[in-house]
Amino acid sequence: MAERSRAQIVLYEAIVLLVGLLCGLPFGVGVGNAWSEDAVRAWRVAHSGGVTVGLMIRGAYAALQEAKRA
């Protein structure tokens, strides 16, 4: 895998993970301020989905690196 491709994957993973983590802020505010159940659910999905996809990208990248070494 070219160095540029590696950097792009790591950057994309970091951006997705950061956006997912930032979506946790309104989620926490919504829970603390008793927003409607639908609004809290939407922010929970945005937060957990972003973090999950960011970590999945990291895991897939690590698996590809390990497979390349073998």
Report what the structure shows.
The chain starts with a helix and ends with a helix. The chain has one domain. The longest helix is centred in the C-terminal third of the chain and has 33 residues, at 37-69. The protein is elongated, with a radius of gyration of 16 Å. The chain is 89% helix and 0% strand. The protein has 3 helices and no strands.
Number of domains: 1
Instruction: Return the string of H and E elements.
Output: HHH
Spans where pLDDT lies below 50 across 5 or more residues: none
Radius of gyration: 16 Å
Outline the secondary-structure elements.
Layout: H1 3-22, H2 24-32, H3 37-69
Helix pairs in contact: 1-3, 2-3
Features:
70 residues; mainly alpha; 89% helix; elongated
Q: In a few lines, what is going on in this structure?
A:
The chain has 70 residues and is an all-alpha fold.
